[in-house]
Fold these 3 entries.
Entry 1:
Amino acid sequence: MLLLENVHPVAVARLREEGFNVETEKKALSEDELCERIKDVSVLGIRSKTQVTRRVLDNAKRLMVIGAFCIGTNQIDLKAATEKGIAVFNAPFSNTRSVVELAVGEMIMLIRNIPDKSVKMHQGIWDKSAKGSYEVRGKKLGIIGYGNIGTQLSVLAEALGMKVLYYDREEKLALGNAVKCRSLNELLEQADVVTLHVDGRESNTNMIGPREFELMKNGVIFLNLSRGHVVDINALRENILSGKVAGCGIDVFPEEPASNDEEFVSPLRGLPNTILTPHIGGSTSEAQENIGYFVPAKIADYINTGSTSNSVNFPNLTLPTLKDAHRLIHIHENVPGVIARINRLLADTGVNIVGQYLKTNEQIGYVITDINKAYDKEVIKALRKVEHTIKFRVLY
Ligand code: NAI
């Protein structure tokens, strides 16, 4: 197993406890370096910098699973990984609390006008006044996108005494006393604080633009800690300058520097009551540690039981633990007839099937067959040869 990019020590410890032979590297490897190192690796662990391209995967003859010790998986060629029967896991919820805490902190700071007051103090200006300062208690918080982050924020905001409204494109259960809005407009017209927690799908590009700002209340507080392209940044700038938006906290931008050495360029620089942060909503020690526990558990589960729950690219199957049986794990191209061929082979050799689980996605089929202990070894050879097989392995 090869773990790159200084993955959290708890992950290394967990995986060694599981019996993996773990090698670590502090940095990401270049494509050429990785093409060489990957040859004998069964499990690869990366964070966001390592590019796992098709060329890398072509060299990965033994690779079974990739653990992305982060949220995003854009750095991995998922299509190629799936074609080659390599399961990919990430840590989609491990940093949600960190994002929620930042959102809570920012809305309290912004509704009190603290960013401007702090700047003035550093300039030696003592501006003691209650003008334009409010409590969040009793205010309406409008959460757009009621997923992992939106729902947690909903709970914490209610604990602060806020009234929570939410809008989601899918049917979502309201937590606590939160009120579901039937449309985005309904939310925008009522909320004192608008906060975005939608995912980064293409169709969400500029979902908040001039029309949406127009609908918002005068003096609204606006937060975006989701994805940069979701907000029309120039429209936001105009609405801050006009005073329509009384304060904003922005953590994500349509264009973000690729490294800490690059200058951050944005029309939002220098605006009043504006908190700008460098995409660190989810970046805390606790989140890194959570990821360090979460991803190894997924990897171990996949290797030891075949379970793919929460896999990014494999059909998700959660499997029961097995007693007195063998488990056959078969990954194949999603074309008709493969499962029939597998079962015909098993029937012809008199193998007794104890349980069978199948799930497919567009690219592959994932079939788990638990069989009675006594079986003819020849059947395994025959199963490997079933047409359209990508990978096959036997557990226990
Ligand atoms: P999630 O997938 O659990 O929730 C997203 C929700 O938004 C879903 O319920 C979905 O139905 C809804 N949605 C999508 N498009 C919508 C639309 N047009 N209108 C209304 N609802 C819509 O995602 P999660 O984990 O809650 O993350 C939310 C966002 O936060 C993501 O964009 C993620 O990339 C970002 N994020 C940012 C971090 C940071 O460092 N600033 C760290 C972690 C996540």
Note: The two ends are 21 Å apart (CA to CA).
Entry 2:
Amino acid sequence: MAVIARRMRHLGTENAFKLGDDIQRCVDRGLDVIRFNLGAPDFNSPPHLNRVAMEALDAGRAGYCDPAGILPFREAIAAHFTRTRGVEVTPDRVVVTPGAKPPIGYTMQTYVNEGDEVIYPSPGFPIYESWVQFVGAVPVPLLLTDDRDFSFDADDLAALITERTKVIILCSPSNPTGGVLSRSELAGIARVIRERCRPDVRIYSDEIYEQILFDGLEHESIVAHRGMPERTVVASGHSKGFAMTGWRLGWAVLPTPEEAAVFKRININIVSCVPPFLQEAGAAAYEDPASAGEVARMVEAFRRRRDWIVPALNDVPGVRCLMPKGAFYVFPDVSGLCERLGAYREYAELAEAARCRTTPAGMLQMFLLYRYGVATMDRASFGRIGAEGQDFLRMSIANGMDDIRRGVSRIREAAGDADGFADFVRAEGAKGGEGLFS
Ligand code: PLP
């Protein structure tokens, strides 16, 4: 009998975390690594929220609490939801989770049977594809391309919907593309769902970047469209907009109290509850007027960095980068750079087993990390199925301006180092591929 259960073969991962071992190896070898890999704001959590949590802790509110979340936090979430989406919701439809990641798996466990189809954006957050496969569902990637601004319309979605579709995942603003779905695009998507999907099909709307939009755009949600509140699970939280990634504060609003009770039951089975003193600060994030200024300051910093890095990357030979409309990532097409460095040739010469473990952009990613100390994420880290032949890198701009400048300057230097690339592939290959494959 094998030690690890068979089902674990199907559980994927999030390479942004996994790359940590490679980064540590580089640091141990003496490299100074600029980290464009993790999607974590480089700001401290807001002081007025830290204070609320510390006071609650000092007052002893540190025991178990309601597994669905403390009522004042669920009320604050419901009020925030109504204010920002224009849809009334009662606290019995809200479940607090440790971050916005758990509701992805909860949704798959709650709604999806083996053999059901799940439509999800690709490139997209890798945990979607991971969970779809883990529950034995059929992954149906909705492939987004840069020639269409990483956008899609109602017809693209309609072409993927079948009798077996059970969940449709949306993410706007998007990780990794920075794409944002407009109100009229969402209206078209909602129309297709009303026309083509049975009432038991669920939409999973991942809105974790709801606060981070540029150029005067306002957050739009599918749930605001006719027929959607009764089908949509909306998930969001405090990690990105309030710079609270390590707090693990997230939530989901479910279509009915009965469905919320299932999410609560999963919480009971796995985490029991989210710490109550953190939830008190979570409520203050929505209720204290000081929050708006803190969020605006961070969004303005992301905008300034975006406006600097996009032209700077476009100036690197072989790189083509679109201007993201939201979130804090840029997602340049690096196929020209792969070409210049000979990555396609080197990739073609790898043994077949090695080719299955990487892509040309993946080799470029590791070259930039191990030889130039620049940590990025390759396209395959955001959904593997159907991603062949697409060579992109994701870079998080949740980094100080100095690091962003130094990072781009290193990429520019690397772009002229075809000999170094060939040497890197040979040297790492001779070591068994240690640095070549994450
Ligand atoms: N959804 C998307 C699209 C994300 O990018 C992330 C984090 O990177 C999450 C969910 C998870 O957020 P959290 O850290 O709150 O669990």
Note: The radius of gyration is 22 Å.
Entry 3:
Amino acid sequence: MGKLDNKVALVTGGNSGIGLATAKRFVAEGAHVFITGRRQKELDAAVKEIGGNVTGVQGDVSKLADLDRLFDTIRKQKGRLDTIFVNAGIAQLAPLGSISEEHYNQLFDINVKGVVFTVQKALPLMPPGSTIVLNASIVASKGFAAFSIYSATKAAVRNFARGWAVDLKEKRIRVNVVSPGVIMTPGLSTLGLTKEQEKGFIEGMVAVTPQGRTGVPDDIAKAVTFLASDDSSYVNGAELFVDGGMAQI
Ligand code: NAD
């Protein structure tokens, strides 16, 4: 028996990194998973890699028409959605003094607006007892140089779970947040660091992590599967840090 047998799931940004690892785990636990991503080629490759019980739908989470097309596809193919992992997001750096309007808009459009409308548009498909897992980050609770806008987007995500757990009380839908530490994914390369800076960043983070290592995408996928499944039946509005202890000390 799988933890998600016969469930219909959505993983946004499911073609790479944490989202891809989670989509694989969801399928291994018995779900049919819809994954999204912006680039068709990467999406097709991920669908092939996952192998079965998966449907790829190309789209940008910051574009409401793309979200409408996504949920229309899910409605037509499956008629319902039991669990969603709202994972698509980007990380970019800019220290105060160098924050451009473009930087601000891009991060808030994808990481905040994308999350709000993904969840809102998914709701009509979600039966009572469904689960929502939002991907935030330890940065929502910490201060790191040049991370302020990204961190603010993730602080918004963390707080959505508090409000939405109450909004969805009548529907009996649980909303929880996973907050990863430093996880080795292709997303790290979008920070805009040189290879040398990236190495220094990772070494610095490992040095302040009690487990003495960075995380792998499957570390997060296991925690998301817990929050998405009945294993977390009385966990609601919570934030689960999966960071090797880094933000806990
Ligand atoms: P990644 O780059 O490997 O994956 C990001 C995914 O999001 C990709 O599938 C990409 O296509 C998708 N995406 C980005 N913008 C999109 C958009 N506008 N529309 C649709 N899809 C879009 O990176 P990752 O590290 O796996 O990141 C996944 C999530 O985890 C992000 O929300 C990120 O903020 C969060 N996170 C990552 C880390 C880490 O250390 N890697 C730590 C904390 C939180």
Note: Helices lie at 17-28, 40-50, 64-77, 101-122, 148-167, 195-207, 217-228.
